[in-house]
Amino acid sequence: MLVLTRKKSESIHLGNDIVIKVVQTGKGAVKIGIEAPAHLRIVRGELAENGSAMLDAAFAAFKANFDAAQREDNHSQELAEVVEC
After folding, report:
1. Distance separating alpha carbons of residues 9 and 21, to the nearest angstrom
2. At the N or C end, where does the chain have fewer CB atoms within 10 A?
3. According to its UniProt record, where is this protein mainly located (predicted)?
């Protein structure tokens, strides 16, 4: 394990695509920001420890709701175009 010391506003670069930045420091806690490509799944350690099945189920539910909203939006646009004709 690599252990680094960073101060507020300092960052760590992982490869070309990932940046971890110290946003805020305080008593017993550090707030970090992570910039990474959208296809990377980033989760808190305690969630990963609970098993990926729960995360997969939550993500699947989110994606299903998002896809349904997209379909409804597309359907609404199609109806609006028909009405305009």
Report:
1. 6
2. N
3. cytoplasm
Instruction: Indicate the SS3 state at residue 85.
Output: coil
What distance in Å separates the CA atoms of residue 48 and residue 65, rounded to the nearest whole number? 23
pLDDT at 85 over 60: no
Going across the sheet that includes 18-26, the strands are: 11-14, 18-26, 29-35
C-alpha span between 21 and 33 (Å, rounded): 5
Can you tell me which residue has the tokens 């379909």? Answer: 71
What is the Cα–Cα distance from 48 to 27, expressed in whole angstroms? 25
| pLDDT tens digit sequence for 14-71 | 999 999 999 999 889 999 999 999 888 888 877 666 666 666 777 788 888 888 888 7
> What's the pTM?
0.55
